[in-house]
User: Fold these one by one.
Assistant:
Number 1:
Amino acid sequence: MAHIVDRRLNPGGKSLENRQRFLRRAKSLVQGAVKKTSQERDIKDVLEGGEVTIPLDGMHEPRFRREGGTRDMVLPGNKKFIEGDYLQRSGQGSAKDSGPGEGDSEDAFRFVLSRDEFVDLFLDDLELPDLAKRKIAQTESEGIQRAGYTTSGSPANISVSRTVRLALARRIALRRPRKDEMDELEARIAECTDEDERAALVAELEKLKAKSKRIPFIDPIDIRYRRFETVPKPVAQAVMFCLMDVSGSMSEHMKDLAKRFYMLLYVFLKRRYKHVEIVFIRHTDRAEEVDEQTFFYSPASGGTLVSSALQAMHEIVRERFNPADWNIYAAQASDGDNSYSDGELAGMLLTEKILPVCQFFAYLEVGESGGSAFDLSDSSLWTLYDRLRNSGAPLSMRKVSERSEIFPVFHDLFQRREKQEKAAP
Amino acid sequence: MTDKTGRLFEGADWDFHTLQRIHDACEGVAKKELGLDVYPNQIEVITAEQMLDAYSSVGMPLFYKHWSFGKHFAFHEASYRKGLMGLAYEIVINSSPCISYLMEENTATMQTLVIAHAAFGHNHFFKNNYLFKQWTDADGILDYLDFAKNYVSQCEERYGRVEVERTLDAAHALMSHGIDRYPGKKKLDLRVEEKRAGRRRQHEEEVFNDLWRTVPKGATKSRSVLSIERRRKLLGLPQENLLYFLEKSAPRLAPWQRELLRIVRHIAQYFYPQSQTKVMNEGTATYVHYRIMSTLHKQGRITDGNFLEFLQSHTNVVFQPEFDDPRFSGFNPYALGFAMMQDIERIATNPEAEDREWFPDIAGKGDPMGVLRDVWANYRDESFIGQFLSPKLMRHLRMFHLHDDPEERAGIRVDAIHDERGFRRVRRELARQHDVGFIDANIEVVDVDLAGDRRLILHHHVIKGSQLNETDAKRVLQHLADLWTYDVSLIEVDANDKVLREYVVSPRPIPAAA
């Protein structure tokens, strides 16, 4: 007797554990491949997962294999050879190896990573700086969750199934006459010819009717409400401020660099926090909060006052993002121009208002492709920030001029490291 | 069971009742007409993803965890997704009950085909072929694999994943040389094997007493110098089963490591008959499915349309490209096996004068199924081809034998073709091509320098000048040395005992010495 079994519904992912082991073993190789792949890709699909190729060297499973020597083979499909013929070695079909050559086809190994695996490996050795600071300060908000049933509550929370079930139980227990019982009785009355019997039946029907009136279909004591309980829930939210100089000196190329950096930062934060908000602040000589489209693409012109953006950020934080509830990250991109007189004010705003509430503040100085700008002396903003940093402000700053540098710079900023760019509390 | 028209199914759709009907119909034909003797069947319908899972653990439903299976999974998955590789229609496991996995996307015709092929063809072969009877234990294999899986994970818990992985890596590298090629020992009983491992562990735990280590040792006995002969005898040398030798004689392996080697060795042994009977196994299954499908069609239980669908997949399966065809990659075991089975049927029922001369035992004997069942039970690829490849089939496939000697300047010589002078030589060569004895390198442990530095000495007997691939050989020897924990040397010698090459490998230091 045969058993026929449907295994299709068995839990999948039987090979998951082996796959994890393989990835763990090949980690450094895969990581290298992921970095390489991600550089060639557009940032938008950078984290889409997908195929990577790794050299098979470390993953090779050696066996004793024989090669060379004299070979004998029997082949099908002889057309013209007779015994004693000689075949030329090079370039003829018959010299094809009859066994599948494993050695060559396997020296590079391609396989597909899922999105999560890709992101994990991509950001594996990166770490959010200064996480500890906010961990203690994290407030707890309240969430609600289901917690059984209750006899009182709002009508919106009536649990119909539970109520009907209890009503049914009560009706059965109290022997409330069922409708079909009474229908049957009525039918018998209608058919009945004998007066006495008819009277008895009518009396019985009346009795049943009275009883069913006494025992209601649904009684208030049947009604149940769904109960909810409040539970404390840790906050896992972050806000990311994108500050950018959009004055005329910022070229499309520079904006593109900044955008890429912001995207990486977003993905990175998204991995840590359930909820990430982004605030875009662009500035010329005055700052405004804008949506993403305007931020990156809409033209603006004017002078450059960095302090205006910092002031705007400070106000938004004060209004909407209580530092106790939010992890605040900020990244500023600029070509480094700033009006000379603004330096003092910007420095003050930064050290006194912004940095104390920020988890992390990064300054990215973007330059024209080719990087010639950096051969000149440091820009005014760079000089200012550099001075602040040297005096102990927790600032991270880097210069970028090529698209390919974005990831290395990002990587460099968030690398796991000993307390280095960390400042006084 | 069947509906009024007597058809098993209409169109391509099937459900589980259809499968049951198909199975019963196939069983009827297989038992009554073909006289097959099979293990009880268990038919499991699986998805493509589950098929990929099965691929990566050598087709077995459960297996211990190891990264190399993950690698194969990733590889198969990538090539499947890109459409480079189709998946098999079925996988069948040599166990009792015999488990066949069918892909859910097969059509009803394909399900009939694979049930006939796997659940009856392969199943009969597994149950009756002498190699499988001798070397594998179909009743115990699933339990043993379960034991192996648990044992490996317990070891990982106790001794660390890295340690276990290293031992398994080494064992896997030597897997192809962890096989007993010659019968003589008793047949493996995997259930007993599993109990034995458990008892041994328990015993060790019970009698463990740390005090014994402090008991002073007696004066060392003066070591009598063993003669070489005696020493080799004590160690059971020469020994070609390298894993067995290490399990029994490696000086510094922990008991659990020996058990791991034993597990790998048993599994290698379980698969050994399959590699020796590819042509016969597939030939049998293909012949059986062809007979069953034809009979069902004749009985009117399969429509003409469905039968044509079957014929198309059947001809794809038994297609043998010629040597100069770009699709050629050696002999197709399905094609060769099926052709030979049909040929034997022809010889038994309708022989020609030539066949009577070549096959006096079976020519004209009638009862083709009796002859075939006997063949299926008592031969492996090498002896099967060596005995039953007929001149007619050689002519039909236009076989010829090439001899490629690198020394020969003129090129590759055509040594024999499908003519009166060449039949026997072509047949002998083809049989040799299917002899694992010639395919696998012949490596054996010949000696251990017990009195000196405990170096392990292996010989590779080189056949026809074909030496080992250097990179791989070094890596495998490295694994071997790590298990042996002293130097290992491998000497390649030719038929005249001339040394062609010598490898010496020292063990890597163990990072965290236990």
Note: Chain B is about 55% helix and 10% strand.
Number 2:
Amino acid sequence: MPEILTPAAIYIAAALLVPFLPNGRARQLFMLLVPVAGVAVFWTLPEGTYASFNAMGMHIGLMRVDALSRIFGLIFSIAAFLSIIYAWHVRDTVQQVAALLYAGAAIGAVFASDLVTLFVFWELTAITSVFLVWARRTEGAYATGMRYLVIQVFSGVLLLAGTVLQYRETGSIAFETMTLGSPATICIFIAFGIKCAFPLLHNWLQDAYPAATVTGSVVLSAFTTKLAVYALARGFPGTEILIYIGAVMTLFPIFYAVIENDLRRVLAYSLNNQLGFMVVGVGIGTPLALNGTAAHAFCHILYKALLFMSVGAVLFRTGTAKGSELGGLYKTMPLTMLFCVVGAASISAFPLFSGFISKSLIVSASADQGHYVVWLILLFASAGVFHHSGIKIPYFAFFAHDSGKRPKEAPTHMLIAMGITAALCIGIGVYPAPLYSLLPFDVTYHPYTTGHVITQLQLLFFSALAFTVLMKTGVYPPELRSVNLDTDWIYRRMLPVIMGFLSAMVGAIWRGLSQFTEYYITSFIRGIYATHGPHGPLARTWPSGSMVLWVAVILGMTVLLTYV
Amino acid sequence: MIDLIAKNLPALQVVIPLMAAPVCAIFNRSRLAWLIAFVVAIASFAMSVALLGQTLDGGIISYHLGGWAPPIGIEYRVDVLNAFVLLIVSGIAVVTLPYAAKSVAQEIPREKQGFFYTAFLLCLTGLLGVTITGDAFNVFVFLEISSLSTYALVATGAERNRRALTAAYNYLIMGTVGATFFVIGLGLLYMATGTLNMADLAHQITLRGDTRMLHMGFAFVLVGIGLKLAMFPLHLWLPNAYTFAPSAVSVFISATSTKVAVYVLLRFMFGIFGFDYAYQQSTLQYVLLPLALLAMFAASLVAVFQTDLKRMLAYSSIAQVGYMLLGTAFMTQTGVMATVIHLFNHAVTKATLFMVAGAFVYSVGSSKISELKGLGRIMPWTSAAFVVGGLSLIGIPLTVGFVSKWYLVQAALELGWWPVAAAIVLSSLIAIAYVWRIVEMLYLHSPSPDTKAKEAPLSMLVPMWILAAATVYFGTHAALTSAAASRAASTLISTSNIIWQ
């Protein structure tokens, strides 16, 4: 293998070439080769840091190969490969170039061994991914993209600030394990947190992902947040606060996901919830937990992409992803339905599906370390996941009341992409050994013990029960009275009522806060415009005399200083 | 022969463009005048490279004009700092001239083109002279040569927009006020010390000690130069002058004249005056520092709301001058180094951007932002050059702008001035806003259907892309410029008689 700087270089070079290839099969085939070449570059390399040099007195390393970067590099490459197949029909050069650059930037960031390289690729993921949102070319998508970009760039700026401070403090910009405490590490931590969609820093995710194109949201779901998880796992393993942040992250999106009607937004919330598991894993920081984080990120990218693909296929064929407008699609889209169910089963961690073998690593690690409250929260969150992603998505899209829509089955390339992803989900679930062998630490772990399987199944069945109850009692937000299941569990009504009340409260507070800040921001900008705008005093053309006045003032000030 | 040239390099650096200027005027044929100017610029550039080569290791060339010994005769004194500035000025002249050929042919009537290049060469002479001379009064003379020719150059924009005349007139009045204050300062200095040679001045000041007269002289020099370098709020001449000047002139003066003025400020402040540290520090930290910070924010915000690209760039220049003054106000080796490196980096960046603006004027006939809609598709190369320059203006890594900001932030943190470091980063965010407005216009709108715009001619694109490539090249290979800047800062500090931190 020739000496190459970083796999990202391949993606960037390919992205530069793509516009010059004829738009069609040749170009798509060429793009498919890119992730393969990217994997070939790092897969055979023994562990170590490559392509390192000194610049401006700092030690730059473009390519650090170790177990952690290798597994993330691999799954990112797989995700890029699958999303290219899925996007076979796309003829929009902007999207193709943006997706390649975006994947390349994410992989480049994974292999970065110093903070400056990390920062460069970090910002590159922000700048390239926004085009996937804009590619929808609507006014709304443009505004969403702008908001997304501002937040992402801000994360990068914080990272840079942290890097500078870190350099001043330690004289090194190496990207190694850090301890939270100094201003430098706090800046870096928050930068990671924004990209990882920590609670209260998460809004960009639910804002932007559902706004992207059909293929765009598949790509988006894979990289940005998992890059942040990788960065946390590299930089802050064992930081206790992450356990609590992660626990909150697994909880709060559930409520939103339940009341949300747009299925892609439901997926965005459940993405947030899944990230919570990984963050808890990083926070616990034991080898078992970190293995769990890496494995869960690996499986999560696959099944989340699968879910986005299937909902995307529905959107592609019917033009909507709203739960209330869909239903009954299983009649004409049976394969898509099947793949969606596989994805749903994986995210819900059904035994024999990929989510089971990765999530149980994290849950076990939390129990091992004595975090029982966290353990309980994770269990509750697992039930919630099943509820909104496992049942709600396939149910509203493909079953429920018949919407009368009879779309065609998804295009062949989409089915191929979904098929491969689904096969991987099941394959990993049935035979996890190859994935376990890739994990950063050697830990012998057996997911299929009686205890695990039974706990998980109990959870799943009770969650299914809750769903049916909610449906039946009619409090389930998009009201669809089509399931007949006699039940009179009145006390069960309490839960949805409280849930509804809580979400109304949160909504009202949020609205109030955002109106408040919006008012102040608007009047602040108006004030700046009044002084700095084209006709404001600062931008006006002044007569020469006023200049002489200023000269006198400054001269006076300087002379005055002589006497103090 | 070669030996003779090598010996007289410092003099030739100034004399050749000075002599070529009347030749241009005599021939007054546009093509020939252009050719002469171009050849002279190349020769100047070659000489400045040679001078930098001789001084890079810390050597100082002292050249006695006409063989008169320094305190009485005029001395040209080249060290690595002014060799670096000479290189910037002559280098920008070399890339501006090929660019100017087409743009000047379109914007200026044929019969005036010969005189245009005459004024251009005089301006170059003045700027080179200010930089190379080691005599304080000589600085004033060359400053006037460059200023007067700049007023004339700005006024040649009248063909395109009559407001160039009032802009030039205003610039003339304000520039002259500045020059007057500067020369009053020199007079006070002379009264206090009896000499005008810079090295001798520094020596006499240490001998005679601190007097109030010197403080007065310093104040006058500071204000006079402050006006020339567009120190906020003494910048009022700049926006109109840059906006209404012909494109090639905007490129050249935006990249060189304020830079040379900053150099003069550095030289006077640190090379000549040797007050007790407290006074110097208080002027820097109570006058210069707040004004620099104000400039960074106020001028950037004004730029955000501008409706004309050239005017927007002009306000951004005022903000960038703020960064240079900030580096100076730190009064540390790193701070001075950040200023010096920003001289180079900003020259390259701003020249690229003004070239882009000029190319738009050439193709669209206007630099109004609203008329740039969709030009990203029609003029891909020009627009891409804007993106490169814009990224550098913001200070994105891999561009020169990042290198400058990196050292500035380093200098602020060295002193433990956190708020200042934060202000540098924050003001860069404002740059994102004004650069983005243009990028959005260029790329995210579709062009108006009846547009006749075409990509700019090759003779404009090549210089533009040489500079755009330089912003990236020196952004990734910062060792070259930072070594020169670091040595320049050290030289300045080692020759000054202030007690440095």
Note: Chain A has two domains: 1-236, 241-517.
Number 3:
Amino acid sequence: MGTADIEAVWRIESARIVAALTRFTGDFELAEDAAQEAVAEALVSWPLASPANPAGWLMATARRRAIDAIRRRTALQDRYALLAVDSAIDEEIDPDKIDDDVLALMFVSCHPVLSPEARVALTLRVVGGLSSEEIARAFLVPVPTVQARITRGKKTIAAAGVPFELPPAAERRERLGGVLSVIYVIFTEGSTATSGDRLLRPDVAYEAIRLARTLAALQPDEPEVHGLLALCELTAARFPARTGPDGSPVLLDEQDRRRWDFSAIRRGLAALAKASTRGLGPYGLQAAIAATHASAPSVEATDWDRIVVLYEALGRVAPSPVVELNRAVAVAMASGPAQALAIVEELIASDRLPGSHLIPTVRGELLARLGRRPEARAELELAARLCANQRERSVLLRKAATLS
Amino acid sequence: MPKYLLITRGTDESNAAMMANIDEMMATTRQFIEEMVKAGVLLAAEGLDDPGQGVVVDFSGEAPVVTDGPYGETKELFGGFFLLDVASKQEAVEWAKRVPAAPGSKIEVRRVPGSDEVPQVDK
């Protein structure tokens, strides 16, 4: 077996092994360390002799490493505790418990005591089964930075005494929201890379979709989980049309809709149906907006009135300047640029999105449509200066140039 | 991301072995499917009816000719599939190894290219 084969087994097994070990030992840090030691051993020994049952080998080895670690710690203090753990750790994985354990693992890796960066890194590492190198590539940060985030994250979990359990009913909804937002942050990094020279990183977005699917399977009665999955599927469905042959961004109105991924759209619509049982939440509403685009044959034939209504609803349940700005774009399509410009001017007056390239991008667009070309050009040039993604920046500059 | 189709190919012998233990086979298959759903990788899965019940529509001549199945002289016939959305070919192969398949049958692993791989033509 080669490295790629071992990584493949690990991706499938990681969450279950770390979850089961954390339950046995009650110690997330120890469980994760033991699991990583098992992978490291596999990378050395499997190329020489592949085990008959790779998944069982990993679990057994990780378990042994966990017992070794506990022995070292408790040798002098508490031999009884060791005996108890020793026998518990010999139990096989209980299929009825493992789902709850994997879910508990997601709640731990997305715990609010962690920094946002640590939540992302730990979730990809323990639930997604990605290596530090893969996470570093996904977020365009150095490998030692990822390693430091993971190490610090594990220490934080231990120091805060975070229990390995499903959150109590009273906190459940809020904590689930925390898990959803970690998955969404990962998806967003793949769907609009915040920096770097590529607009899309589908492999990063894929990790989020996979996590959302797992969560939807484990929490099938939570509408917003399906809402998030629908949003991710419907957004990713447009990826094949979102960049041109040279990698430059193609905006919605210029996309070749035949390139959209229609099976992803179908999956997204199916997830959206499951999300809308009790009125849509913020993710469900965004998914409904994406679904409206996905079902339209062209920009002109899009139901913009419906999109405006959905943005209004979104603005009520999850108010944000970005939602307001998107509402302005939809209003421009439904009722014309003048009304939309009024919304944008209000946003600027309230200074709720300082330093972002988004406001001048939209304002420039609207001014151009109103025929106020010099103002439009200045605005698009400002947007280009503020934009961190090189691909988007060059589109803005190209647009500005056409207005001179 | 690339998808992979795991195509199960059974022989008369492996199909007979499967039918002899059909209850157990159904239970393990259901468990396997659930595992893939929880791993976030399964997009679709179906099992096909007896190849003898199929028909073959042949386009060799001017008009399509319909004959009774099974298809061709192949010993291992297409019996079902799992469509997976995985990170790598190795992962697809790892899942293929875990399919509860009857002895003597085979699993063919084929990549499904994404629509982003279709070459773009400038308008």
Note: The mean pLDDT of chain B is 91.
